[in-house]
Request: fold
Amino acid sequence: MIGSLRAPALLSVGSALAAGVVLAGSGLGRLAYAPPAPAAVDTVRVKGSTHSAEGARTRSTSVVPGYLSSWGLPPVQGRFTISDTALVFESTEGSATPLGARISLAYVDRENGRNHYLFRVDAGVIETDVPDALLELTGDSIWLHGLKPAVKVPAAPMRTAREVVTGLYADTLFLLFGRPRAPVGLIGPQGRAAGRLGEYIAGRDSLAFDPVRMTGETQFRHALAHELAHRWQATARSQLLTLWAGVPAIRDPKRYGYGDQSEHQAEAAAFAISFLQATANRHSRATVSLSLLDHYDLLVPGTRTMVRYFALHPIYRSHPLRSLLTAGPLRHALEK
Ligand SMILES: [Zn+2]
Reply:
C-alpha cells in the first residue's frame, strides 16, 4: 500500500441526511457518480456467424485471453472460459467471475495496428484481440437461453466503506486531491432515489456515498477516487485544462463519462489511481504493467495522462514504474 498519513474520517448518518437536504436544491446532480447502465441485448450481429442450435449444444470449451471491466471498473487481465453452460472470467490472480448469459459486440477499436474487440456482458465489458469464440456467442440464441444473468452481491458494504475511508488508500487520495472539510457521509434519500453511488458537493466540500448498493470494496475505492477527483476539478481548473489537451472522448456510449467531460475526467483520474495502486507491487514486470495501462486508456482515454501526472507526486516517489512513467514520451506498450 502507498500512503503515509492517518487521520479520522467517518461515514456518519448525520451528514448523510444533511447531504440529502443540501442536494435537494443544489443542482449538483451532474457531478454525482452513478453505476453504468446495465448491459442490454442489442442487435449487433457478426456477418457469417451462423452457429446452429446443434452446434451450440455440442460446443467444446474455449478459452479466450483478454480483460474484464466489471460494472464500469478498470480492466483486469485474465481469461474467459466458454462452455455450453457458462461464460466465466478468471483473473490472472485466480478469482473467478461468472458473467451471465447475454453478450453482444459493442464495437471494435483499432489501436496501434491491432483490433480490440469490446463485448458487452451483463456484468460489464470484455476486451480481447482474440474474439472468434465470443463472436460466435453473439449470434447464438440457444446458448443464451436458460442462463441466469449475473447479479451484484454487496459484501459487508458499510463495514467495508468505513475501513476504506479510514485507511491508507483514502489517505493517499486525500494527499493527491485534498481532504474535504466535512466528514464522509451517506447519500440522502433523494440521491439514492436518483440512483447515485457517490456525490461530491462543492459548496459544502463534502463527500457522500451509498455503499449498500455497491458491489464491494473495489467499487467503493473507485467511487471514492472518482468523487475526490471532482474536488480536484473544483480546485485545479487550469492544471486540468492543460493536462486534458488532446485527450480523445470516451468511445463507448454505455461507459460512465461518455459525452460528459467532467465525468470523463473523474473516471480517468479514478482509473489512474487504480493503475498506480495495482502496479505498486515491485514483483510485477514493468512491460506487463505498462501494457495494462494501454488497456485502461483504451476504455477511458486520458488515464495515461493522469497516471503520468500523479506519478510525479512525492507520494509515488518509490513506485516501481515512476521513472518510466515520468521520463520522456511514454510509448504505448502495444506498439512493440
Ligand atoms: Zn462524477
Q: What stands out?
A: Residues 31-33, 226, 230, 263, 266 surround zinc ion (CB under 6 Å). Confidence is low (pLDDT under 50) at residues 1-10, 12-57. The radius of gyration is 20 Å.
